[in-house]
Design brief:
Largest sheet: 3 strands, antiparallel
Shape: flat
Structural class: alpha+beta
Number of helices: 1
Amino acid sequence: MNQDRTSSTSTIPVPDPTILETFPAGSPYGSWPAERFAEARRLEGEPAEVVMHLATDTFLVVVKAGA
């Protein structure tokens, strides 16, 4: 049962987020420094969030493009 399948899916380009700051994941405080930094940016009106970048073992504080 080998059938050729054609996909009609199209890709939608997603802009990269802006990285505001990076924090090492190996810190004894874990993600807390990144979370505190992001919270301070949110209090200033910037929609910052923390994400984990596994390849570099860092926490990134980012603002999604278009936000």
